[in-house]
Specification:
The protein is mostly helical. The protein contains three helices and no strands. The model has no long low-confidence stretch (mean pLDDT 80).
Length: 89
């Protein structure tokens, strides 16, 4: 069950990442095709922010949970001392 949930979370984040990338491609290739948006650069920046959110989520899932197996978690760039220091903040 754990592996399946992690897989679904990754698929969801990856699909949203692709969706927002496609939106950027549409704006870059045909900015006049979307009449409701007058500030094209701001619209693209908003889509890039959304892409960054989903990419970050993918990174966090892969880093901390791997493919769902405890042995396959990626090595953290945080040391245990760093994590203990963060708890004190």
């Amino acid at each position: 069950m754990r592996n399946r949930m992690i897989s679904v979370l990754l698929q969801h984040a990856e699909a949203n990442l692709v969706k927002h990338k496609l939106n950027v491609e549409v704006f870059l290739n045909n900015p006049t095709g979307v009449a409701e948006h007058s500030d094209y650069l701001e619209t693209i920046q908003n889509e890039l922010d959304k892409m960054a959110h989903w990419e970050d989520q993918i990174h966090v899932i892969e880093k901390w949970f791997g493919d769902g197996n405890e042995d396959n978690k990626k090595e953290s760039y945080w040391t245990s001392a760093d994590l203990n220091d963060r708890d004190e903040l």
